[in-house]
Structure prediction request, 329 residues.
Amino acid sequence: MAGWLIGIPVPFALASPPSWGWIVAANVLLGLNQGLTWSMTVNMKIDLVGPARRGLATGLNEAAGYTAVGVTALVTGYLATAYGLRPVPELIGVVFVVAGLALALIVRDTAAHVALELSQHTAPVPTGESTTLGATFARTSWHHPSLRGASQAGLVNNLNDGLTWGVFPLLFTDHGLGLAAVGLIKGLYPILWGLGQIPTGRLSDRIGRKPLIVAGMLTQAAGFVLALALLDTPLLAGVLSAVALGLGTAMVYPALIASVSGHAHPAWRANALGAYRFWRDIGYAVGALVAGLLADALGLNATVVAAAVLTAGSGLLAALWISEHRTAG
Prediction:
């Protein structure tokens, strides 16, 4: 509820901003809104479904969110074409805020499910293991091997997304593609990423999280290789790389969240998921910065090579650090 209340000013600030500062402020509020609301939907679904179906539940949650991002981009693009850039496209956000706040008011809290899970959990919190935010953040970021492996994989995965937004349009336009073709390439990636998480999330419940995490990171690395290897036919290179990146991300995303929830005790699971999502989502910003620095220093091709090497290395670290243990519950 707090997240949706914070989000109320966002569409109005974007619809008629008197200065650039209003745009910046709206993005700050939007970030807080997303951090609170989306994180809680992840926690609530994990609370509700239990260990056996966490991959499917998180896959559905992430697919719903990222598919909505794509659909909203299409709708606002149409509205901008028909009515101009402001204020109509931004005001669709009013509908989202009202709907989100209304749902937050009527949805049931899942605290009782966590309490039940804790009462039936076979393993108590080990003596001396702190459940505070600081201790859990350190445990998720570094001390616990599997959680460390998931955090670094999540960061690199989203670094790829930030990097492709900066590099791919320039790379493919330099090789003769127009805006429509570049838009197709960039659209395929999130569509496959979003919709693909439903079957991959379910698959992670069946075969385990680690195989999908490792294979997904290596598939993304292959996507970067394809982008360069087939540049003589840039449209084919772009489409195949987007397919590989989208499918690789779909393999990784729900499996990583389910893996973190499986390795975290219910007493500190929400804190662990928050720490993991911090590292994962900061990858967007890191990717944008890395893309700019490397492209300026080494060129676009070298930046894509560096992304492939980094992603493959992340997959190997995931294979080394992440175990397939799941918390009983």
In short: The chain has a mean pLDDT of 92. The chain has one domain: 2-121+131-321.
